[in-house]
Amino acid sequence: MAQIIDGKLISAQIKEEIKEKTKKLVVEKGIQPGLALLLVGENPAAKSYVASKEKACAELGFKSIVIRLSEDTDEKTVLNYVEQWNNDSSIHGILVQLPLPKHIDEAKVINSISPLKDVDGFHPESFGRLVIGLPGFVPCTPAGIIELMKRYNIQTKGKHVVVVGRSNIVGKPIANLLYQKKPNANAIVTICHTAAPDIRYYTKQADILITAIGVPKFIKSDDVKDGVVIIDVGINRVVDKSKEKGYLIVGDVDFDSVMEKASAITPVPGGVGLMTVAMLMSNTYKSASGEI
Ligand code: GUN
What we know:
about 40% helix; Rossmann fold; six-stranded parallel sheet; about 290 residues; binds guanine
């Protein structure tokens, strides 16, 4: 039976650690970490993520500014908010929730965020630093994966990590982090994606399998080898009328199916998802304290 990698427990520990450090930062240096959040449109998942980020700011003693705009907001308005926050010394982190509506150029918005306040780690400068191995803001979900494996003592050195998915938010950064010649990395990394004739050919070879594709229960028991460590980044809503909300959240991995074969696994919900918010708080704290 697989060990459950408890994202709820670890994210709570991390947030508690940051809360204590924040108290000190306020008392000793008079600095309160400040995070500005911008949401455009009505995407239910995006709305719920922004709400949990706002709640975490309140719990940890951060200042937060949250701007919610309608779907038809123009690009210039978004760029104006970013510029205003780039020049506001009480704001240490800027987060524009993705996805943005189609008529707004996502890359242009990300590029407009000051690299000094890029707590999402999506700016090309942050990504370039990550690839080279320089210090900088690491995207929150990949940072959360590294932190979970570290705190559960999961060895990565020399292990074959297979990443399924090549998104800018998860697949590309986690793959680039894990092959670095550093502690909690130094792995042999394969990235596979939709162009693979048979994705399962790769997943079966993984010592550590990281899935971030957004396909409910895509990975089954036959697709993995004995003892695999599974990090499931998928957060998929599937219709379930028996639930109060009318849907159920499942991962990219069929949890029950792989449970017997895996040595450790992150559940969905209660795994990686909660770590994303904790690492956002960590990045914002580091920006405020001058660590990054
Ligand atoms: N959409 C999905 N994940 C993220 C994230 O980590 N940050 C932002 N800004 N948008 C997202």
